[in-house]
Amino acid sequence: MFRSKTSPPEFKRDLVDLENYVTKSMVVECKVDACIDKFLVRLRDLKLLTADRYFFKLPSAEGEAGKTLQGLASELRNDLERLVPGYVDANTNILEAEKVKQRLSPRWKVIRNRTRKSKPRSNADPPKSFLDRVLATLLALQDQQRLSAANDPSAGARTLTRGAFTETCQQLKEAIESETSAASFACGGTIPMAETTDSADSADPASQPTSSGVRVWIAGNDSTARRLTLPVAGETADSSANALQELVATCQPASFGRGGEDVIDPEYRQAGKLDPEDFLTSFHPADHGIIELIEQVLLPGISSDTENRLQFRKLKAELYKLNVYSGPSGHFRKHVDTPRSEHQVGSLVVCLPSRFQGGNLIVRHHGQETNFDWSPQSGASIQWAAFYSDCEHEIATITAGDRITLTYNLYVREMTAAPITPIHPDIEPQTFPLYGLIESLLATPGFMKEGGVLGVFCSHAYPHASDLAELQLPRALKGADLVVYAVLKSLGVEVSILPVLEFGGSYGSRNPQLGITGRVKDSGSRYVSSHFLGSSLEHEFLQEGGEPQLGYSDVHLRNYGNIYDIDQHWKEILLTREVSELDEAFDYGEKYNLAKKPNSFYEPGGVRLGPYLRKYFTTDRGQEEGLDEVSTDEWPAYYLPGITWITEPKHEEMAFSQVVYGNQAEVGTRYSCAAILAVIPPFSSRGQPFQEK
Ligand SMILES: O=C(O)CCC(=O)C(=O)O
Ligand SMILES: [Fe+2]
């Protein structure tokens, strides 16, 4: 269709009309579907339904089964008559009515998932009841919206105006972001070498820790080992330039991970390595208090009763490699270390005393940068740096000398022992600016007066697509994520970390007011919008004032509530039903400044929220089906609109892949992002002041 670029389109309707239209049509459809669901589940429970994924059949009208069928049919008629008066003609056989017949098979496709036994879950099962809270809160909000649509537009007068609410969310976003940039992501230190051993200071345990030379034993081909003492003093055979060169010569070229493979590419990394089984060293980071220091900076505990266990987090350093980067061209370009397990939170690099030039280690996190320049002191000190695993880092070119490092993986582990004094100071949530802000928001009656759900994507990357992640995650939280989590918890707000599934390239977590699109930056061509032509909602409804048929999909109904309770069930369908083209229509309307409902429920879009963290898997199911359809079945998630998203998704991880074998094997993959979700209770039940739960 040709449209002039210069003249703006004319509109017969605005976004208030759109939302009312969608709600009104969907309410009727959802009520009908709830009645049908109940009918089908009754049949199934009586084992009268013949159905699988592709095939569907009602029992015959003969005999006992026929009688039962008639009974259920008249129940269906009564239900329909009560919820949607006049929907079916009083004189027809309800099972012959086209309107009803047409709904049976599609509804079965949706609810058959409820018949599936869900996988047995781990003992600690908080996300399940947490999700119940999320659903209950969103259902209440939706109810409220629907009623205020029908009646009094001033019903929400005591809630913040849209502008004020947006401003509040903006403040929250900024507070979280500044927490992100303020939080330390790297730390480091220097251990000077003791000049001589006769210094009186070295006997004084309170003095600065010094080191008197580091010894390295390198395994030979036979059962011998050569010894090297650093820094090279040149006086003895094991501390000479020659001995150092022997070490350099013994190293193999160091590889790095690219696309799941170990590759050697001197353009990217030019370095030598020894594996831990090929050497021993007298150096241990714990001897110098390095581990405690890193714990203090990168692993603060949380001071809250319920999170007590988090206070007993400790770091364990596991020796990973010895590396040598030699001048004039040793280097390692930008990369992120591959976590060796879901317990890994960071990396430690210890630079042994050996002269070199250049070779700065530069660590970055969210636009911030820490530059470790070790060359000036390289001959006289042990220098070290630790950083979170997801921080990008690089080693600048070593122009001369040999830069010898020990690298360690840092794992978080829980102290299972009975309470011991915490080894490091806890986070005091009250000391963070975010605490004051959220505390005052909760005390503001108009802020989420009817309750609500806040969504904040994690700012650090975690291996969250893992079975263990659920047990690990609150404990392994880093930096700003830990602050957000701890602050909310300490204010008595229910918080959980759950995965959000990408769908068609988007996470659906929009918040147009804050400019939040729900898309991961730099995710390349996966995120090409397929939406080129205007949709029927934009043209037929908004511009032309017509009443187009609404397309929708029901993502998943979890085993929530009771399917026999149709008065509740239709609301659940309404909540979890995704109406097609709605996001686009809202964007379009926004572009032309069409009026909107003050607290639109549909505008923020919906996300596919996973009920728990689960591990990555591959499926070869669905040779005939697309990835979307398979997603719905294989990765249980609930489509939920109405969450107030404060930040953009940042670190995605592969959630699952579908492998299709054919003439040509194909792999489709869905990604997920971990998010911190918080259920804000309605003002009336927030209580004052807040108590830690
Ligand atoms: O040697 C360094 O400074 C860092 C080494 C590094 O990034 C690595 O081994 O992955
Ligand atoms: Fe690295």
UniProtKB/TrEMBL annotation:
Top-level taxon of origin: Eukaryota
Record field: compositional bias (Polar residues): 196-213
Start and end residues of each Fe2OG dioxygenase domain: 316-414
Sequence segments annotated as region (Disordered): 195-215
Entry-linked PROSITE patterns: FE2OG_OXY
Signal sequence coordinates: none
Protein name: Fe2OG dioxygenase domain-containing protein
